[in-house]
Design a protein that fits this description.
The complex is a heterodimer.
Chain A (H helix, E strand, L loop, with lengths): L3 E4 L2 E5 L4 E7 L6 E7 L6 E7 L4 E4 L2 E6 L4 E6 L8 E8 L6 E3 L3 E6 L1
Parallel strand pairs in A: 2-11
Antiparallel strand pairs in A: 1-3, 3-8, 4-5, 4-9, 6-7, 7-8, 9-10, 9-11
Chain B lengths: L3 E4 L2 E4 L5 E7 L6 E7 L6 E7 L5 E2 L8 E7 L2 E6 L8 E8 L9 E3 L3 E5 L1
Parallel strand pairs in B: 2-11
Antiparallel strand pairs in B: 1-3, 3-8, 4-5, 4-9, 5-6, 7-8, 9-10, 9-11
Chain lengths: 112, 118
């Protein structure tokens, strides 16, 4: 069973609208959680990284939250743009030098 | 900063031939690099961890004789797919960890290489 579960698997939103992606994890111990954006045919690009003590972090129109007690994270996209169409991957690290545990990703499609 | 490049970006080869993919950290030194494989609509799967100057560590189920990894310098790791077959067709992505960063396990990903074996 995957230790990082993402939902929804995919979603379609209208340009200009907001959306929220979810990530639940069971990875333990926990070091940090990252959200990546992966365009089709490209490598992942880091959006945010949060450690245990951080509850929220923003990067432009992207805002990530983390609840380390419930082991849940979310990524909120504000005022979506067509260029936001991509796969968003939640990645959890168990320690400073440990392997990364990847979620399956949420495929976001922004339509005009 | 923290740029990782891969070459080639795509390659098509005949079944039975070998293909080499390069991964370079352009503006930092990387003691450790990672090789991932990604099939359509799936997430990245770690194949092996490459450490400069030593043998790579392969994940369970990954054939070390088929996927040869060499990490000869602090900025270059190569993955050679030997005797490639159509089932090896995939998107191969490398990542590199900055040797000077001691916390966070930050990995910087390359743009990926699309391998198609005919």
């Amino acid at each position: 069973k995957n230790q990082v579960e993402q939902s929804p698997q995919s979603l379609i939103i209208l340009e200009g609208k907001n959306c929220t992606l979810q990530c639940n994890y069971t990875v333990s111990p926990f070091s940090n959680l990252r959200w990546y954006k992966q365009d089709t045919g490209r490598g992942p690009v880091s959006l945010t990284i949060m450690t245990f003590s951080e509850n929220t972090k923003s990067n432009g129109r992207y805002t990530a939250t983390l609840d380390a007690d419930t082991k849940q994270s979310s990524l909120h996209i504000t005022a979506s743009q067509l260029s936001d169409s991509a796969s968003y991957i939640c990645v959890v690290s168990s320690d400073s030098w440990g392997k990364l545990q990847f979620g399956a990703g949420t495929q976001v499609v922004v339509t005009p | 900063g923290a740029v990782v490049s891969q070459h080639p970006s795509w390659v098509i080869c005949k079944s039975g031939t070998s293909v080499k993919i390069e991964c370079r950290s352009l503006d930092f030194q990387a003691t450790t690099m990672f090789w991932y494989r990604q099939f359509p609509k799936q997430s990245l799967m770690l194949m092996a961890t490459s450490n400069e100057g030593s043998k790579a560590t392969y994940e369970q189920g990954v054939e070390k004789d088929k996927f040869l990894i060499n990490h000869a310098s602090l900025t270059l790791s190569t993955l050679t797919v030997t005797s490639a077959h159509p089932e090896d067709s995939s998107f191969y992505i490398c990542s590199a960890r900055d040797s000077l960063v001691r916390v966070g396990n930050e990995q910087f990903f390359g743009p990926g290489t699309r391998l198609t074996v005919l």
